[in-house]
TrEMBL record:
PANTHER family: N-ACETYLDIAMINOPIMELATE DEACETYLASE, PEPTIDASE M20 FAMILY MEMBER. One of its GO terms (molecular function) is N-acetyldiaminopimelate deacetylase activity. Gene3D superfamilies: 3.30.70.360, Zn peptidases. The lineage of its organism: Bacteria, Bacillati, Bacillota, Bacilli, Bacillales. It holds the Pfam family M20_dimer. It comes from Aureibacillus halotolerans. The keyword Transferase does not apply. The Mn(2+) ion enhances activity. This is N-acetyldiaminopimelate deacetylase. Residues 180-271 form the Peptidase M20 dimerisation domain. It catalyses: N-acetyl-(2S,6S)-2,6-diaminopimelate + H2O = (2S,6S)-2,6-diaminopimelate + acetate.
């Protein structure tokens, strides 16, 4: 059976599921994997993820890992595409449908035209949160099949289709989620002095948190604090008793993240005092930076520079996060950007990646892994 990358991607695009709830996605991938010739394949399920080992032909071959993330985001799709998400309020807005399709296409190719090395394909849940990479790496199957090198890609709307970009060393930031709850005293909007208004407290806190980046971080360093969600109150003439702030923090080193968290804690304590409220902070899921191994990145860059189908672009580190960072922390590896632009940015409800990138990536990755 031939692999129709566009059809697979569109099928996956229609069934986005949140982290560790990728049941339909897992079933869809398994149906395709189970329809392949099985002689070289070993499959293990891990929660909603899948590990597939495709044994190579060389007795001295190494085990090379290739990881694709599986989850979607809690975003209402607004692309107007005929194959838009059928799951209300959920969307593949970060390209994981593209990532899985490329991994599946490469897996199919490696099964049908075996290469010397063994390849371990990791279909990993929950990249957007709470993080599937670290617990998947602790699974029996991963430890048993431990790859000696590991790869992943991320779609890049900022780069045109037909291009790839990567650099050696730090590529993606350290991340920490941020969840803050403030609890004060609600009441009638006409009697503010009898209450402790959590709308006002949250507003001050959010503004003050921006000063951590602008006033506490060395201007020559980089950091981000973004609040993506704010909830407080129920009705226009009642002062809110609680507020909930949700965001993310990004730094260029784990040490900077520790310092960042201390600053945030300081601001939250000050708000408790100033606004007579109780606060809780939860730093949620934390991802280690993606650090491309020098040797692996250099080899991959050399390959891309010789490619006749993909054009290599230089790039800088980005403040995006990826739990693939836990894999490159332990195993020499590399993540690269795959151009799918121009289109809206990652996490946009209107992003439409160029599907021409799918076959380009599958062919080029096969060439790379079969020539190693
Ligand atoms: C590539 C990408 O967009 N990754 C996400 C990872 C999110 C991690 C976590 N939920 C957080 O928000 O800190 C990103 O937002 O960079």
């Amino acid at each position: 059976m031939t692999f129709n990358a566009i059809q697979v991607r569109r099928d996956l695009h229609q069934i986005p599921e949140l982290g560790f709830k990728e049941y339909k996605t897992q079933r869809y991938l398994l149906d395709i994997i189970e329809a392949l010739p099985q002689e070289r394949i070993e499959v293990e399920m891990w929660r909603t993820g899948i590990l597939v080992k495709v044994n190579g032909t060389s007795p001295n071959g190494r085990c090379i890992g290739y990881r694709a993330d599986m989850d979607g985001l809690p975003i209402e799709e607004e692309t107007g595409l005929p194959f838009a998400s059928t799951h209300s309020g959920q969307m593949h807005a970060c390209g994981h449908d593209m990532h899985m399709t490329i991994a599946l296409g490469l897996l199919t190719k490696v099964v049908n035209q075996p290469i010397g090395d063994t390849m371990l394909f990791l279909f990993q849940p929950a990249e957007e949160g709470p993080g599937g990479a670290a617990p998947m790496m602790a699974s029996d199957a991963f430890r048993r099949w431990l790859p000696e090198e590991i790869y992943a890609l991320h779609i890049a709307p900022q780069f045109p289709v037909g291009t790839v970009a990567l650099k050696s060393g730090l590529l993606f930031a350290n991340t920490s989620e941020l969840f803050i709850t403030l609890k004060g005293k609600g009441g009638h909007a006409a009697y503010p002095h009898q209450t402790h208004d959590m709308v006002v407290a949250a507003s001050y806190l959010i503004t003050q948190l921006q000063t951590v980046v602008s006033r506490r971080v060395d201007p020559m360093d980089h950091a981000v604090l973004s609040i993506g969600k704010l909830q407080a109150g129920n009705v226009q003439n009642v002062i809110a008793e609680t507020a909930r702030i949700e965001g993310t923090m990004r730094t260029m080193s784990p040490e900077a993240m520790d310092a960042f968290k201390k600053e945030v804690e300081g601001h939250v304590k000050a708000i408790e005092l100033a606004f007579h409220c109780q606060a809780t902070i939860d730093f949620g899921a934390n991802y280690y930076q993606v650090e491309n191994n020098d040797e692996v990145a250099t080899t991959l860059i050399r390959h891309f520079k010789q490619s006749t189908t993909l054009r290599f672009l230089e790039c800088e580190a980005a403040m995006t996060g990826e739990d693939f960072g836990y894999m490159t922390k332990e195993i020499p590896g590399c993540l690269f950007w795959l151009g799918v632009g121009p289109t809206e940015g990652l996490h946009s409800s209107k992003i439409i990646p160029d599907e021409a990138a799918l076959d380009l990536a599958i062919q080029e990755l096969y060439r790379y892994f079969s020539s190693k």
